[in-house]
Design goal:
The protein is α/β, with parallel strands linked by helices. Helices cover 43% and strands 20% of the residues. Helix 1 crosses helix 5 (107-130), helix 2 runs parallel beside helix 3 (62-70) and helix 7 crosses helix 8. The termini are far apart.
């Protein structure tokens, strides 16, 4: 069985060491760096399954690291930050992160979120291997194994969670998914306060799908969302 490798990038060395300690107890292999430049180099030189990034780092901040990662890779990204407002969390999700935790944080909660993201990726990989090789919905063509999407012949760049939401709805055309349904199936966690997270991802997904011209994701008021081809 291949080992699972997690990148930890935080300029606060004590925090990075604490995260590494707890993840190693779970059996994960960790690569720990303390600036954004080293984080990008690590991603380009060895396989990474999940990245935990502090936002405020020297050389490159977490946003820039995420931007460069998303040009080629789809691993889950968890942001860590002392910024705790809803706007800061939304900004992090819009920039391409899959999750956002504020400092100080409970290390065991972070481990639980890491486990949930990795478990979900494994489930989606297994699902893709047994599903149709291509799903078409109107002008959309979804390639589950490659985790790519074409819109009217042009490839569009989606974050892993944006892809997962679109793929979920495309596999069940016309079905209406509540925000709770989407959060629990895509994030693999209990809902609690996941509504804003789902709304942010739906909004950015619609923008990338050119919703000013194409109406793929329909809101069913008071119920949820559905995909129309």
């Amino acid at each position: 069985m291949n080992r699972i490798t997690i990148l930890i990038a935080d300029d606060e060395q004590e925090i990075a060491a604490l995260i590494e300690l707890h993840l190693k107890k779970e059996g994960y292999h960790c690569i720990t760096v303390h600036n954004g430049q080293d984080a990008i180099q690590a991603v380009h030189t060895q396989p990474i399954d999940l990245a935990i990034l502090d936002i405020m780092m020297p050389k490159f901040d977490g946003y820039e690291v995420t931007r460069q990662i998303r040009e080629q890779y789809y691993m889950p990204i968890i942001f860590l930050s002392a910024k705790a407002s809803d706007l800061d969390k939304i900004e992090g999700l819009v920039r391409g992160a899959d999750d956002y935790m504020t400092k100080p944080f409970n290390p065991m909660e972070l481990v639980a979120r890491v486990n949930a993201h990795l478990r979900r990726i494994m489930q989606l990989t297994q699902m893709a291997s047994t599903s149709k090789p291509v799903i078409e919905a109107g002008g959309l063509v979804i390639y589950p194994e490659q985790r790519t999407v074409d819109l009217y012949g042009e490839t569009i760049e989606l974050t892993p969670k944006e892809f997962d939401i679109l793929y979920l709805m495309a596999r069940h055309p016309k079905k209406v998914f509540s925000a709770e349904n989407i959060f629990e199936q895509v994030w693999g966690e209990d809902y609690f306060e996941g509504g804003n997270t789902v709304m942010v991802h739906i909004r950015t997904l619609r923008k990338k799908l050119g919703e000013d011209k194409n109406k793929f994701i329909k809101t069913v008021w008071g119920v949820g969302y559905t995909l129309h081809g």
